[in-house]
Write a structure and sequence with these properties.
68 residues, little secondary structure, 1 helix
């Protein structure tokens, strides 16, 4: 994989690719650094935990839990 950053000085841009890329299908994507970043679209979710109350005399049975 090749990843590079350039400042385009004309409408035409060229770059070197490794020899093992020759003859293969390449996907080239170009976008500006700030393009597509919408800070309003980033939603930070807070983890949500539910409390489970168990009987004090509860014993975990691994064999029963793994039965199918």
């Amino acid at each position: 994989m090749i990843r590079t950053q350039i400042i385009a000085e004309t409408e035409e841009v060229s770059f070197q690719i490794p020899e093992n890329y020759i003859g293969k299908v390449l996907e080239i994507i170009a976008f500006t650094k700030d393009e597509g970043l919408n800070n309003n679209a980033i939603i930070k979710k807070q983890p949500r935990f539910n409390i489970i109350h168990l009987d004090q005399d509860f014993k975990f049975n691994r064999g029963e839990a793994n039965e199918r």
